[in-house]
Amino acid sequence: MKRADIAFAAVGMVLLAGCSQASAAHAVTGCSSAAPGTVTVTAAVLDGRADPAPHRVAVPLGGTVQVQISADRVRQVHIHGYDLEYDAAPGTPGCVSFTADRAGLFDVEAHPDTLLVQLEVR
Fold this sequence. Notes:
Layout: H1 3-17, E1 39-46, E2 49-51, E3 56-59, E4 64-71, E5 75-79, E6 84-88, E7 94-99, E8 104-111, E9 114-121
Parallel strand pairs: 1-4, 3-9
Antiparallel strand pairs: 1-2, 4-7, 5-6, 5-8, 8-9
């Protein structure tokens, strides 16, 4: 196997091992028990609606955020501004943990158009 093929295969294995898509700058990891100080956000999508109703969650700049979404059918969850996308499905909540390294107001949506929560990073 050529060196380039080995490097490509290694990158592919790393991408497949993760639970979401993101740039390396966001330190994305899968979800498990949240570390102390982690802002944990949970929501569900039921019949196309957010449960609880969409609301804002304060997140300190540089803090760790864990977002876990349950769904009654397969949904793609997107965290805008951080370009994180992952799936949530019945019995398999979608979950992502990342470092909030950008200040602003960021929507977490179940696509195509269900606002679940807004992350207010400051």
